[in-house]
Structure formats: structure tokens, C-alpha cells
Amino acid sequence: MGIGKSKTDPCHLSVPWGKSQSVDTSQSHQTSDSKQSEDISLHGDAVCSSTAEMPAGEQEGVEESPEEDTEEEVFLKFVILHAEEDTAEALRVQSLLENDFGIKPGIIFAEMPCGRQHLQNLDDAVNGSAWTILLLTENFLRDTWCKFQFYSSLMNSVNRQHKYNSVIPMRPLNKPLPRERTPFALRTINALEEESRGFPTQVERIFQESVYRIQQAIWKETRNTVQRQSVA
């Protein structure tokens, strides 16, 4: 909350002050107390009037200050799409990529804001990150929502040039989805194999900082364009 909003409004104080001064059991003081009450009330009205007559810019500067703790949106390195039952495994993979390989920041889909539609969260997750990791486990194909997620992600990577090769299927150590049961659309993409000896090399080859910077610049420009259009 801004500093201006935390100050007590003098307009609200004029009324109770006037009432408290007008209450007296002595008949001889009623006239003087009433006059004093009126003076205080008028003084309060004058403060309110002077505030109201201030230019709009100055009023905003006094009453409304930007919140200091407002955080700027961050373009993520990756988002992990996973089955609901695989939240713990998704968190483990997130920690692996961030702490062991320095690929940060990242997020798993279960950490997306609550109270919003799943489609909105999916759009924000895919377009607000450089890479979309599909956690291919045995639970993944049992979840209809997961199927929708990977089809939508693939279509997004095809329709947007800067998103080409941004969808990364990954078979984790725990309960990986067998290759023969993997949907054909995903079999055409080289998947990250955590149990493979070449896993570190795969990670280094895929998550390149230069690719991230390009996508980040496009993301910022898109956001700025949308903000300018909304203002206009």
C-alpha cells in the first residue's frame, strides 16, 4: 500500500471532532462550543477542498503511490507439463535442471496460479517460457488433460516460428513411459532420457542461452504491443 493511502484523511475527522466538542452539560458553554465545533468542521472542509482543487497529477502523487513490492513478470526458462499424480516427480526434475544444470527460473504446471481457467494457465505457461517439457510417465497418457496439453503445445510450436523445437518430451527416472506406448507425434521428437549417459550433453545442447534470449525479446515486444493497444 502506498504511503499516501496510509495517512488519515482530514475530511473524515471533521465530523467526529465537531460532535465531541458540541456535547456539554453546561448551558452557558453551548454557544461557544457550537462555534468552536463549526470552526473545526469548516477547517476540515477547507482541507478537503484544497485537496480536491489540487491538479490530478498531484493528487495521485499524494494519495496513490506505486507498491514497492510489485514484481515484474519474468520470462521463464522452462515449464514442466505433467500428470496430477506426478507433481512430486515434476518438482524433482525442476530441482535437477535448476540446481544441477543452472537452468533457471523454471516452473511446473501445478504451481501456476489458482482460481484461473486451465486454458489460460496453459497459454501463459507455454508462451511465458522458452521451453515446454512434457513429463512422459505412465500416468501421462491416462490423463485426458495431459493429452490436450501436449497436442496444444505441439501446435503452438508449429504455428509460431520462434517456438520451433521448443517442446521437449522427457522420460524421467521414475515410471517413464515406454517408447512403444509414446504417441506418434511425440516419437518424432528426440526426447530427453534421464537414465541415459548422454543426458547432460542433451541438456546442454537443448537449453542454450542464445535461444532463450531471442524468445525473451519476442515475448517482451509482444507484451509491450498488447499494453500499448489496451491504453489506446
UniProtKB/TrEMBL annotation:
Major subcellular location class: membrane
SUPFAM superfamilies in the record: Toll/Interleukin receptor TIR domain
UniProt entry keywords in alphabetical sequence: Cell membrane, Cell projection, Cytoplasm, Endoplasmic reticulum, Endosome, Golgi apparatus, Immunity, Inflammatory response, Innate immunity, Lipoprotein, Membrane, Myristate, Phosphoprotein
Biased composition annotated in UniProt, kind: Polar residues: 19-34
Chain intervals with Acidic residues compositional bias: 60-70
GO process terms (BP): defense response to virus; inflammatory response; innate immune response; phagocytosis; positive regulation of canonical NF-kappaB signal transduction; positive regulation of chemokine (C-C motif) ligand 5 production; positive regulation of interleukin-18-mediated signaling pathway; positive regulation of interleukin-6 production
Assembly with partners or alone: Homodimer. Interacts with TLR4, TICAM1, IRF3 and IRF7 in response to LPS. Interacts with IL1R1, IL1RAP, IRAK2, IRAK3 and TRAF6. Interacts with protein kinase-inactive mutants of IRAK1 and IRAK4. Isoform 1 interacts with isoform 2; the interaction occurs in late endosomes and disrupts the interaction between isoform 1 and TICAM1. Interacts with MYD88; the interaction decreases after IL-18 stimulation in a time-dependent manner. Interacts with IL18R1 and IL18RAP. Interacts with TLR2. Interacts with RAB11FIP2.
Protein name stated in the entry: TIR domain-containing adapter molecule 2
Native source organism of the sequence: Ovis aries (Sheep)
